[in-house]
């Protein structure tokens, strides 16, 4: 079972992770488009890529963690029993459990699974000349270790499984709708694999991708319980 860290220690960790994500986001947005990979110049820009959406979400999440740490360090104990700090912590836990962990681990697992099978389906070789190796790993690999760091240093209260999975399903449906809209308006597929699939293949692919999210939500819940025990946040010592 993990030991409870002080708010000051959590702040140090969160500042480092937040700075890393801000740096990564800046590096990603600084990439230049080419004729072979127009990227941000096509319809939807970078916002059509789940990897970029996840990067923005992780940056916002760890920025929120920094804010919460500062609030708990600056406010007196009496003020911490107020509504605003409690709402911030609840928001942090909701974002982490419903979106940050499952979407982050999905980006990692789906990317590297397709990459190992046939990289041309998700990350054509010519991208090596455009996207630095370190940035590729920052976008698709390092996200998972950082999520586990966060899970280890702070307990996150998991709410109703039904509501959590429904929230994740809503996010998945919105993103898939966005992908289809981009194809409808601009005639392009966000990822190369989609251009190679038949209509039925697309249905199966989208269905499998959406359904794989629920197990990742449950995986996060299992790991959180493994690290912090089954007692939940109510039985942990207050910081």
TrEMBL record:
Family matches, as Pfam families: Far-17a_AIG1
Keyword ATP-binding included in the entry's annotation: no
Chain segments annotated as transmembrane: 50-75, 95-114, 134-153, 165-191, 197-219
Membrane topology type: Multi-pass membrane protein
Catalysed reactions, as listed in the record: 9-(9Z-hexadecenoyloxy)-octadecanoate + H2O = (9Z)-hexadecenoate + 9-hydroxy-octadecanoate + H(+); 13-(9Z-hexadecenoyloxy)-octadecanoate + H2O = 13-hydroxy-octadecanoate + (9Z)-hexadecenoate + H(+); 12-octadecanoyloxy-octadecanoate + H2O = 12-hydroxyoctadecanoate + octadecanoate + H(+); 9-hexadecanoyloxy-octadecanoate + H2O = 9-hydroxy-octadecanoate + hexadecanoate + H(+)
Annotated Gene Ontology cellular component terms: endomembrane system; membrane
Keywords associated with the record: Membrane, Transmembrane, Transmembrane helix
Domain of life the protein comes from: Eukaryota
Subcellular location: Endomembrane system
PANTHER family: ANDROGEN-DEPENDENT TFPI-REGULATING PROTEIN (PTHR10989:SF17), ANDROGEN-INDUCED PROTEIN 1-RELATED (PTHR10989)
Family: Belongs to the AIG1 family.
Name this polypeptide is given: Androgen dependent TFPI regulating protein 1
Source species of the chain: Myripristis murdjan
Encoding gene, per UniProt annotation: adtrp1
């Amino acid at each position: 079972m993990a030991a409870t860290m002080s708010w000051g220690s959590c702040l140090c960790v969160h500042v480092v992770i937040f700075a890393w994500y801000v740096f990564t986001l800046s590096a990603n947005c600084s990439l230049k488009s080419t004729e072979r990979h127009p990227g941000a110049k096509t319809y939807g820009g970078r916002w059509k890529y789940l990897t970029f959406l996840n990067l923005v979400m992780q940056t916002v999440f760890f920025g929120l963690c920094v804010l919460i740490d500062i609030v708990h360090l600056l406010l007196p104990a009496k003020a911490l029993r107020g509504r605003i700090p409690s709402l911030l912590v609840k928001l942090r836990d909701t974002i982490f459990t419903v979106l940050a962990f499952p979407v982050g681990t999905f980006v990692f697992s789906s990317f590297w699974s397709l990459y190992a099978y046939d990289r041309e389906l998700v990350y054509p070789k010519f991208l090596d000349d455009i996207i630095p190796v370190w940035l590729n790993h920052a976008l698709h690999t390092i996200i998972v270790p950082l999520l586990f760091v966060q899970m280890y240093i702070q307990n996150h209260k998991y709410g109703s499984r039904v509501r959590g999975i429904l929230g994740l399903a809503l996010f998945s449906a919105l993103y898939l709708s966005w992908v289809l809209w981009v194809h409808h308006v601009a005639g392009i597929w966000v990822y190369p694999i989609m251009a190679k699939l038949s209509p039925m293949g697309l249905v199966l692919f989208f269905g499998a991708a959406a359904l794989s999210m629920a197990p990742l939500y449950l995986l996060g819940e299992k790991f959180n319980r493994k690290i912090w025990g089954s007692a939940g946040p109510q039985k942990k010592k207050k910081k």
